[in-house]
Amino acid sequence: MEIQVSIGENQRFELREALLVYGDRQRSFVTRHQIVLHKNAPPTLEPAQPLTIAFIESLVHSLYGGSTADVLPEHVLAKGDSMIVWWTPRCRRQMFYGNSEGKAAELNGRVFPQPPLVWRVDGGDLKIRALMDNKRPGAATKLAAAPFWNLSDDGRVCVGTMRHPDTASVKSISEWERGFYESAFTHANVGRLTRHSGGFEGLWSGLDKRKQFPVETLIQLPQTLAQFVRGGRG
Q1: Which residue in 125, 135, 166, 131 sits closest to 146, CA to CA?
Q2: From CA 182, how far away is CA 162, in angstroms rounded?
Q3: Cα 63 to chain center, whole Å?
């Protein structure tokens, strides 16, 4: 029995090995098997072999191709295969509010000062935290809640119809930032976003007239940058 796959006109692939995944609700493991092809019978598996790092690296390379090394800019804090973390210093950005009532409706389209922020993209998910100091954070730096609508208590952005890239690369950073700010802030996902006595609307009302974001209104968290990078909540 001959098993082959043709891709295009010149590529022919022959069945050689199989990976079997075993698991329960808590953990999984994988075994690797050589394939024995038979002329008049289905293929059979040879005894299991342990997976090696060299095999996994070779498999990933064959699936995704070789990748070139990037020189990381200073604002990038961490980089993985499908994850990137960076920070932005304080700045001014235009913000949009949709389906809002009261004072929030009056905020739509204004340009506001922004606190220093830490951004994390992993597997298509975007999380954002704020910084108390306008400088590059270290692993032990304590983070603060980002004072924005559309964010959950763990900093995850409810992307909704937000336009965003599909990758977590250095080149995609500006696209993630632009997609976040150009989307409409529509609702609060947590009860408290700021220490300001007037709450969220009290914080942002009139803030467009200030040069810098008042970081004293941020809610500091026990979560460190290292925990944020690893995906932990602290």
Answers
A1: 131
A2: 8
A3: 22
By residue count, the chain amounts to 234
- Tokens coding 190: 């947590």
Beta strands 91-94 and 96-97, pairing class: unpaired
Pairing mode, if any, of strands 28-36 and 4-7? unpaired
- Which tokens is 181 given? 């700010």
Q: Taking 90 as the threshold, does the pLDDT of residue 60 lie above it?
A: no
Q: How far apart are CA 60 and CA 4, in angstroms?
A: 21
pLDDT digits (tens, 9 = 90+) for 172-202: 999 999 999 999 888 888 889 999 999 998 9
Q: pTM for this one? A: 0.73
Contact between 104 and 97 (Cβ < 8 Å): yes
Please report, for the chain, the start and end positions of each structural domain, with discontinuous segments joined by +.
Answer: 4-64, 76-230
Please calculate the CA angle 56-61-66 and round it to the nearest 5 degrees.
Answer: 150
pLDDT, one tens digit per residue, over 158-172 is 987 788 888 888 999
Q: How far apart are the first and last CA of the chain?
A: 56
Own/partner contacts of 48-56, CB < 8 Å, gap of 24 or more, are: 48/20
Question: CB count, 10 Å around CB of 42?
Answer: 8
Are 122 and 210 a contacting pair, CB within 8 Å?
no
3-class SS string, 67-130: CCCCCCCCCEEEECCCEEEEEECCEEEECEECCCCHHHHHHCCCEEEECCEEEEEECCEEEEEE
- 144 closest CA partner among 89, 234, 218: 218
